[in-house]
Amino acid sequence: MTSFRLYGHHESGNCLKALWTARYLGLDIEWVEVDIFKGESRSAAFLALNPAGQVPVLERSDGRTLAQSNAILTYLAEGSELIPEDSFDRAKMMEWLFWEQYSHEPTIAVRRIQMKFHARRADDLDPELYAKGRRALGVMEMRLLARDFFVAEQLTLADIALVAYTRVAHEGGFDLAEFPAVQSWVRRVESALGLPHAADHAMAG
Amino acid sequence: MTSFRLYGHHESGNCLKALWTARYLGLDIEWVEVDIFKGESRSAAFLALNPAGQVPVLERSDGRTLAQSNAILTYLAEGSELIPEDSFDRAKMMEWLFWEQYSHEPTIAVRRIQMKFHARRADDLDPELYAKGRRALGVMEMRLLARDFFVAEQLTLADIALVAYTRVAHEGGFDLAEFPAVQSWVRRVESALGLPHAADHAMAG
Questions:
Q1: Domains, chain A, ordered by start
Q2: Fewer CB atoms near the end CB (10 Å): N or C, chain A?
Q3: Gap from B200 CA to chain A (nearest CA, Å)
Q4: Angle at A91 between CA B38 and CA B18, to 5 degrees
Q5: pLDDT of amino acid A86
Q6: Is A65 exposed, middle or buried (0-12, 13-18, 19+ CB in 10 A)?
Q7: Mean pLDDT of A6-15
Q8: How confident is the model at residue B169 (pLDDT cuts 50, 70, 90)?
């Protein structure tokens, strides 16, 4: 079996979703922690792995490397049950993967970084970021009103990619109680992936 | 043969790249112009096609719709020579497609919109947007120094997706003369797609 090394940061949803996918599929994967807050993703050694200076990076045993979280997901899961067999369902899954990186991550994950890691207060932040994040959660809510999963009535990469930052959206000041279908779906996907419920953990902690 | 309708705006690289891909592959596709500057992508009729309110949208003859430009590209080109056969090459192509939407389009296309369509002057704009756009062009320059195309020494969707806003980057105040490998690659991809050279056109016009 091919073995992989995954360079990532333990608080990054982009990195964790690749780890969860690999574990769900029973792949042989080794985690290498990169301290992005200490500039380790801008070191010469890291830039040799990924000139764009971003985590995650997947390294194959032959040394070839792959960046971009959702490209890593589709590569790891190729031919598995996490990718629908029907070509249009597969295309819809890709639609959500691209939407996640364009409209969800740059608002919800970015606001979380500012509040949780840069200790910025909500009223110091760009209000547009909050508005756009809520709009993204609203798009998800509409999609999930009559569905258990984003595509093809099954767990796919779209759910794994989207749950990564949605489950910790409260750390960016978003209230998932406003989006009940999203909230139920988060628990459903966390269960399927064997993850603890992030919001419970937050309340306990 | 399946026929498609493509809802888009004629100045949007995200929309044009889907049209170019369909034409390159000889698919039966009909263009429907959506005037995004007059709010037509926020109308009830359009939101029924794509609740996210974004162009492009691909509509199949059975009425099913697909959004997100690069998801449309991968769907239209499935099984064609625009997607490499080797699974790792395919993954690298996906890496560039995700990178394009995350690091290239939000800087280069956004600055072009502000300058060309909102008549903003360069010194009124966020300097970060210019810095990030130049960094994206620098990443492309490094990749293309020893390559004719982004992946697998052949024209793939990665080139089509990336050329869309790179060929008109001058309209966003970027100078491609600083990135000679990118500049040659733009001409190469424009030739392969049968497009006029955008920069020549700009100079003539």
A1: 3-77 (3.40.30.10), 87-204 (1.20.1050.10)
A2: C
A3: 30
A4: 45
A5: 97
A6: middle
A7: 97
A8: very high
> Residue B154: pLDDT above 90?
yes
Look at B98 and A69 and tell me if their CB atoms are within 8 Å.
yes
Residue in B64, B70, B102 closest to A88 by CB: B64
End-to-end CA distance of chain B: 39
ipTM score for this prediction: 0.95
Q: What residue type is A195 in one-letter code? A: L
**Chain A residues contacting B via beta carbons under 8 Å:** 51-52, 60, 64, 66-72, 74-75, 78, 87-88, 90-92, 94-95, 97-99, 101-103, 105-106, 139, 142-143
pLDDT tens column, B10-34: 999 999 999 999 999 999 999 999 9
Q: H/E/C letters for each residue in B140-197? A: HHHHHCCCCCCECCECCHHHHHHHHHHCCHHHHCCCHHHCHHHHHHHHHHHHHHCCCC
| Spatial distance between the Cα atoms of A8 and A10, rounded to a whole number of angstroms | 7
Distance CA B56, CA B13 (A): 10
What's the half-sphere exposure (Cβ side, CA atoms, 13 Å) at A194? 8
Q: What pLDDT is stored for residue A111 in this prediction?
A: 95
Predicted model pTM: 0.95
- pLDDT tens, residue by residue, A13-47: 999 999 999 999 999 999 999 999 999 999 999 99
A157 vs B159: CA distance, rounded Å: 25
Contact between B116 and B172 under an 8 Å Cβ cutoff? The reply is yes
Share of chain B above pLDDT 70, in %: 97
Cβ atoms of A18 and A161 within 8 Å: the answer is: no
How far apart CA B16 and CA A141 sit, in angstroms, is: 30
Tell me the pLDDT band of B204, cut-offs 50, 70 and 90.
very low
Query: DSSP assignment of A126-169, as one string?
Result: -HHHHHHHHHHHHHHHHHHTT-SSSBTTB--HHHHHHHHHHTTG
The answer to whether residues A155 and A149 touch, using CB atoms and an 8 Å cutoff, is: yes
Q: With CA atoms as reference, report the closest residue to A90 among B78, B182, B18.
A: B78
